[in-house]
Amino acid sequence: MLLMKTAKRLPPPFYQWLRSKGWQLRDYQRQMLSAVAQNNATLLIAPTGAGKTLSGFLPSLADLYRHPVEGLHTLYISPLKALTNDIQRNLTDPVEAMGLPVTIESRTGDTPSHKRQRQRRKPPNILLTTPESLMLLLSYADAPKIFGHLKTVILDEVHSLVANKRGDFTSLALARLQSLAPDMHRVGLSATVAQPEVIAGWLGRTGEPAEVIQVPQTVKPDIKLLDSRHRMPFGGFMARYAMEEVYEAVKQADTALVFVNTRAQAELVFQMLWEENKEGLPIALYHGSLSKEQRRKTESMMSQGVLRAIVSTSALELGIDWGDVDLVIQIGAPKGVSRLLQRIGRANHRLDEPSKALLVPANRFEAVECRAAMNAIAAGELDGEPLLPGAMEILPQFILNCACSKPSYAEEIYQQVLDAAPYQSVSEEEFNKLWQFTVDGGYALRAYERYQRMEQNEDGLFSPASKRVIQRHRQNIGTIVEAGRLKVKRIRRGNQGKIIGEVEEYFAQQLVPGDTFLFAGEILKFEAIRDMQLHAKPTKGGEPKIPSYAGGQMPMSTFLAEGVRHILDKPESWKALPGQVQEWLELQQAFSALPDMNRVLIEQFPHRKANYLLFYTFEGRKANQTLGMLMTRRMEKMRLKPLSFSVTDYGLSVCLLEKVDVGKLRKLFQPDILGDELEDWMLHAPMLKRSFRQVAVVSGLTEQHYHSSHKTMKQVTFSTDLIYDTLREHEPDHILLAVTRADAERDLLDLRRLADMLIRFDDKMHFMDLEKVSPMAIPIVLDVRSEQVKGAGAHAIIEQASLYQEAEDMMADIRVLLSGN
Amino acid sequence: MAITDTWLHGEVAANRVLPVKFAGQLFLLDARGVLYCPQRDALVVSDLHLEKGSFLSRFANPLPQLDTRSTLLRLQCIIADYSPRQVICLGDSFHDADGFYRMSEEEQRLLSVLVSRCVKWMWVLGNHDPAIPEQAGGHSAHYLEWDDMVLSHEPEAGNAFQLVGHYHPKVRKTVSRKRFSGKCFVHNARVFVMPAFGQYTGGLDIETEPMRALFEGKAMETFLLFEGGIYKV
């Protein structure tokens, strides 16, 4: 094979181009050239700024130079739309400079339809796309023609696709591609990760992990923890106290990226920075809820170098090249070491110089978390996510997608599913049930007059029952998770205005007319929801209701939680913390106690007319969430009237009406809670309904994207909770209920970890009965994202509130009426 | 008449039934979403939307079609408790004109048992079911009159008092930082709106425009249905 022999070298024009840029071929780039040719899958792990993306494309460009072809040669898949635009720019440069006979185009949800049609007729040599757009392409009948001669597929930022549903979805698309183009090579590009083998396993076909090429990080970043002149709060997430200092840092840098964790934080931090912005520096806002046009505008201003700072959520975290960012500011807790490194890597795209970063904790607990992350980076340790089995609710989507492209047998699709690493252990029985669900809903009861989504022809092949099914499926492809979304329309007068972005439906539902909220950097007044749009008018002044939409919330890695615990356990290590944080820890020690490694600290105190119990478990959000569910269930049985609970990565806080003593606490905090309460909870928990909501949408049971007719939308808006109740009562064995349960287990429970903890700390409680909230409890209690418990406590509250004096008098009259009948 | 003083006393104590006075008459509101008129021994239920599941399934939504069965079984329990002389279904009993014919035989049987059990079964016609097939049993009418109160699916101007369905009212309420939401009964001095009973029926918040317009901003009384209890909020 010609390719093999010459693969180690590039054609001459490439060297000329590299020289003209003042670059030379790096060792690992040379390694890539041969590895990509020899292996079915290759994973390149390199720190940011190492020229990763170009390395991924070099083998393809060289091959296209030597053997020009018509049609699709290389497919590039990026998790972000914005990234495809960026890559197209960066790739077109060398291609034009070298005069290569290569066509490059991108295809995303934003691509105009005439261009999309042309791309199907005459595909470019290199197509840049997203997983969702790829799946859509795969649903067309001409997919085998488009992809039949595909040589290479490049997955960028592949670490962000492992162990989540979008990644599961992508792995299925890869398996399908492989069946269309059996000789296709896979190339993955990843940031530095803790366990390369996990990503290598994901990237390759089942049982054939990718070959790993790893480029070591040579320079450690220069990270500072803000030691503020101002008083750092105990709780809260907005870091208002530090804005003056953040602004100073922005002023001193040429260009700064200000990262926050949620969209709500992004809005508020942006506003606060502008309040500080006496010099009127160009500071912009960027998050996933903003409209395409607004994001595009910010992106182009940034690449022209006219901005001094951008406040952003994780939307900018992945490899977009912003040129000359020289400082990254992280506001709020970093939540994970790898994530922090990735963000810091956005500053300074040169390998041999340290990136500069400033960490700004929003409260004192976060300061400890920042310190723990800095320790880990200094020690070269990273946190990793374990590989999870693929989400089953995506399979009906995949099955229908395949059938839309061409009539299929179940067995053929099953083999493709098994070829996707996350789905390698799906049993035939499970698959067949999901298949049947896709065909006709799979309901055992109500055997007659079923609605069929797929029909079988005389050869036994299945295809979609109607055009409508295909159309509905294509509109809903890629609906992976998350709440329904509403467009935000900024009203000028009447009903006229501009769409400026999107919010989650549940946030919109909380608003009553007249409420104000921050969006796209200004205060808007809510008017109404009309035609799936949230109408709001700009308004001046007033304290806005913070957009509490969930977007971008992220769990802290358990690895980091453990780091925090170590710092707390060793008072001698506190010196590295800001003075205020040391004081806070000392205060906690004096007022209550500090969590240590051998016992679990439990505090109780009255707060806001209720009683709070705080368990400092340090077992991570998932395990705490599960513990919260089980604990409140047991409290309900013990008539302690629990009302709600909230979790952080550090602990669990339960709000209840009754007070608890040591004896009761012993009964609560027991390993047997996993046996008695678990089953009970699994059947009744509202969390399962939440999981079902997602499962219903992803599996195509109900739809998120509606047809143009409003009628259809209205009809489907009754909640999936009702379907869940109905199914559970009348058909408890339905496959979607099993999938929901698996989904809840995957997302919420961390049972083994929880069991270990309960056994380890059985009878090793450190109980502090306090008069008021302890310094350490404040950040946890202030966390507003609480789970409501339905039960006697809730009924007690509403009963107190519903005074209905006349009822007694009426009852007497009713008795008279009844006796008269 | 099956309800006894003892039973009623227990239900009221457990917040499962509440009395209410409207148009000078006394009624019982059941937390399961029905209204009972002791004076006439009549049970009123609204918006059953039978066969909504199978209707939506025609539009490529593979929904479980168990809603009719579930709705009827719930109604059966309530009818067993009250054994009313008459049952009034206040419109939108079937989600569409063909609804009855899509019911399974078993479900049709279940319905006919319910209908034949009381002396009088009345289908008040709604916008979703402008006609009820004869096979469904019972009688149908566009409206009923109880003294100066009119029972119809949708309200009409000019009536002194009216009992209606159609709106599927829901209410949200926050008490001591805890959020409650659910279907509700809601009324002012002249209009009384029933909650929707059907398994697959969503709701319309009483704060939204059509409901506000209906009550013309005049004081409303609202009874929230929450987890098997009924509360005046």
CATH architecture of chain B, please? Answer: 4-Layer Sandwich
Please compute the radius of gyration of chain A using only Cα atoms. 28 Å
Q: Count up the helices of chain B.
A: 6
What is the name of the CATH class of the largest domain in chain A?
A: Alpha Beta
Mean of residue pLDDT values of chain B: 90
Topology:
The complex is a heterodimer of chains A (821) and B (233).
Chain A: H1 2-6, H2 12-21, H3 27-38, E1 41-45, H4 52-66, E2 74-77, H5 81-98, E3 104-107, H6 113-121, E4 126-129, H7 131-138, H8 143-147, E5 152-155, H9 165-180, E6 185-190, H10 196-203, E7 211-214, E8 222-225, H11 243-252, E9 256-259, H12 263-276, E10 283-286, H13 292-303, E11 309-312, E12 327-331, H14 337-344, E13 356-360, H15 364-378, H16 394-405, H17 410-419, H18 428-440, E14 454-456, E15 462-464, H19 467-476, E16 485-493, E17 496-504, H20 505-510, E18 516-519, E19 522-530, E20 533-538, H21 558-569, H22 579-591, E21 600-607, E22 610-616, H23 620-637, E23 642-647, E24 651-656, H24 662-668, H25 673-684, H26 686-698, H27 710-716, H28 720-730, H29 735-747, H30 751-760, E25 765-769, H31 777-782, E26 787-788, H32 792-801, H33 806-820
Parallel strand pairs in A: 1-6, 1-7, 2-4, 2-5, 3-4, 5-6, 8-13, 9-11, 9-12, 10-11, 12-13, 16-20, 21-25
Antiparallel strand pairs in A: 14-15, 16-17, 18-19, 19-20, 21-22, 22-24, 23-24, 23-26
Helix pairs in contact in A: 3-4, 7-9, 11-12, 15-21, 16-18, 23-25, 26-29
Chain B: H1 5-13, E1 17-22, E2 25-30, E3 34-37, E4 42-45, H2 52-57, H3 67-82, E5 86-89, H4 99-102, H5 105-117, E6 120-124, E7 139-141, E8 143-146, E9 149-152, E10 161-164, E11 169-175, E12 178-187, E13 191-193, E14 204-205, H6 209-215, E15 221-226, E16 229-232
Parallel strand pairs in B: 4-5, 5-6, 6-7, 9-10, 10-13, 11-14
Antiparallel strand pairs in B: 1-2, 2-3, 3-4, 8-9, 11-12, 12-13, 12-15, 15-16
Helix pairs in contact in B: 3-5
